[in-house]
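Troubleshooting entry. The earlier prediction with pyridoxal-5'-phosphate gave an output that would not parse, so I re-checked the input for stray whitespace and re-submitted. Clean input:
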Amino acid sequence: MAKYLMAQENSRIIPKEDKIFGINKLAKEMIAKEGKENVVNATVGALLDDNGDLVVLSSVVDVLKNLEPQDYAEYAPIGGTPEYRKHIIEATFGKFKPKSHTRALATPGGTGAIRNTIENYTQRGEKVLTSDWFWAPYNTIAQELERKLVTYTLFDENDNYNLSSFEEKVKEILEIQDNLVVIINTPAHNPTGYTLTLKDWNGVIDILKKYSKGKKITILADVAYIDFAGDEDKYREFFPVLDDLPENILAVVAFSMSKGFTLYGLRGGAMICITKNEDVAEEFVLVNSFSARASWSNCPRAAMKVLSSIYEDEALLAKVKAERKKFCDMLVKRGKAFEQAAVEAGLKTVPFDSGFFISIPCKDPDAVGKELQKSGIFAVPLAKGLRISVASISEELCKTIPAKVKAAMS
Ligand SMILES: Cc1ncc(COP(=O)(O)O)c(C=O)c1O
């Protein structure tokens, strides 16, 4: 029996309501009934201050408010303005600008970069690989594009990055297909907060090289949280690993202005390739511009102008970085407080480094989530555990929540 009236399902699984937005709605309803002080909404994927208000960098807002109409009203070129395409490379790599060929194209947020990478570097029906803890829209995008998202186990039994599971999946997939896109979200992975070490990265690359003979592999580094992980240089130290790949392994970096510039709604982002082969770089521009034209056409010029203006003015850039650092320090403190309180409460979390989220592995995440809701705590149940957004709760709450989660689990 057809489930849809006029629409075609096209082999996608389309939920009636997005899970996170659904729980967020419940939290809001409870706030309306019981008052803000009695509800902890740890579902939000945006940085909130200790009062629960969205953090917006005032230094960035000043730039936005001073834009001239032509800065936002006019169409931007499909791949982005030339200034943006130049400065986004600086914003992404910082001190670690690759020596290989790089090309940047504007995308609507990091989401657009993920979409275009899957579209252009795999064929319909093929598998795309990521870890078993993953950001749900990877699956949404893969389904929409008629690909299949498959996963490797992120952590081994000693809570180390699970290179053997990664290898097993790479080998298995490349036995049946000639192309592979691997998505790695680091630093400050959503939903665990894990950051791949240089050793992890080298292991990943060695495995890809081992199975790459006669194949085309694309490694997509989703760095959506890079500017809220901690020290800007330390968290960019892995980029050189992507600068020394054979020609049949392409690196693509998905950059987002949503978190780093607190402009979630302005849809600024970019996809940047790193390759030793200039023809591959030119092809990257060609095919991804085509896909952009076919899906969103061009991206908001305002976001590009804001980023370009910031990078064209040293003092302004320093101001943005200083303001961002203040909030990044606040976030890092929350994460540490949560980790510490989890240890004290005997609550196991998955290996956490930094970022917006911490996850707690558990058997029946939906049931634990519902139990927590009884005491006014809202978190997101995932397949393998519960995701808590430390980005949206105060340091004080980070100290008390772990004991409550532990109680709800038992
Ligand atoms: C893991 C991950 N990747 C990418 C994104 C991209 O976000 P946007 O499209 O807003 O840049 C997000 C946003 O939540 C995310 O969590």
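This one parsed fine. The two ends are 42 Å apart (CA to CA).
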